[in-house]
Design a protein that fits this description.
Elements (H helix, E strand, L loop, with lengths): L3 H11 L4 E17 L2 E21 L2 E9 L4 H17 L34 H14 L2 E18 L4 E17 L5 E8 L7 H14 L3 E2 L4 E7 L1 H13 L3 H5 L23 E5 L34 E5 L2 E2 L6 H6 L11 E5 L7 H6 L3 E5 L2 E8 L4 E6 L3 E5 L2 E6 L2 E5 L1 H7 L2 E2 L3 E3 L11 E3 L2 E11 L4
Parallel strand pairs: 7-17, 8-13, 12-21
Antiparallel strand pairs: 1-2, 1-4, 2-3, 4-5, 5-6, 8-22, 9-10, 9-12, 10-11, 13-16, 14-15, 15-18, 16-17, 18-22, 19-22, 20-21
Helix pairs in contact: 1-2
Length: 463
Amino acid sequence: MTQPQELVEQALAESGADGCVAIVSEHSETNLRWAGNSLTTNGQMRSRSVTVISTFDGADGTSAGVVTRSVTNSEELSDLVRASERAGRDAGPADDAAPLIENYEHGDDWSADPAETSVEVFEQFAPALGAAFEKWKRADRLLYGFAEHQLTSYFLGTSTGLRRRFDQPDGRIEINGKSGDLTRSAWSGAHSRDYTDVDIAALTDALDTRLDWAGKRIDLPAGRYETILPPTAMADFMIYSYWTGSARDAEEGRNVFSRTGGATRIGEELSKLPLTLRSNPSEPGLQCPPFDVVTESEGGLQSVFDNGAAVGATDWINEGTLANLVRTRAWAAKTDSQPRPFVGNLILESTASGGKSIEQMIADTERGLLLTCLWYIREVDPQTLLLTGLTRVGVYLIENGTVQGAVNNFRFNESPVDLLGRISEVGRTEPTMSREWSDYFRRTAMPAVRVPDFNMSTVSQAS
């Protein structure tokens, strides 16, 4: 196959547009799947996609044609370039148009071969998983799940002379533990760059404990409960709030961060606790591209015109106060502001010293719920960011510092932004993975938190 760098150069050379961006993504993936304490399948695959963005300047503004295809040779690439040009000529002026990024200094090794993963990434993980299978067989319990590892190399070039590349490793583990009679179930998941940091024994032991808790069933009515949300549940909420954090939507009055008169809530205190929500492309264990890679414009969050723009560390909330919203270059120019690019990771932490483990938080609870798993989260009201969703295989009653048993499931109604203002305790921040959004956004670090009045709006029959 033609090297990705060659495809980028060919696309730019063949382009007849006023401006052009070419992005080649080389993707490799390997995976393991298991059911009933036995491996069922493993596999490995490779793929390539090429995106060509053709821009045309006109009297009424600049248009863009964006086409993405699987490309293996020069002829297919030529067809892709022509398709992108046709799309650009047929499109109307783009409201997110901005000049393409000019070349700047960076340390990327443009000439290096694409990175590739292989089944060897599971060299430590697989034996540990096998040991867990044996332990669970002896206990008459069952493990189901999968582990996947992906490695994507991005090669990005512009007609303005910029050349950037980045290798993104990305791993996901999801495990379901079940009792031998299949009446009890629990879920756990994790993100990893290379599987050397995955403690499969700890993950499965936690599931084992939850199955023990579920040996007793407790029915509770709907209502507001003191609730401990573990890191994975906080990731569910914070990711969604991040996705809605568009400065443009806020200034046009369309999201929870709006104020009347075209103002935003930047500078407003969202929490009395010293909570900081931030992103950093170089965050250890959560590294992501330090430049924009955008194959489709998305509202006020990302623009194809910003491809290649340098991405740095940003505090979205600083010690409880809203500090920044995502702002594309085009909207920054219109509002005489600084661009704030979307970043591919998210960290929530308290700047106060300490930070209890979730076990310590449970031990300090007189009466409340431990809510380990959310799913089917949907937006109800964008003005307040009210979300609704269901609990699933993982609500437990705590009394006098001890988990008493599993509780029926609920439908909840909560706003992540409102939730920030009601948190009464923040635990230790640790890497985690959202269950609901793990297909789209995995690189997170969150704390467990205590909320004195989490809204379980109705009882759910979900299991």
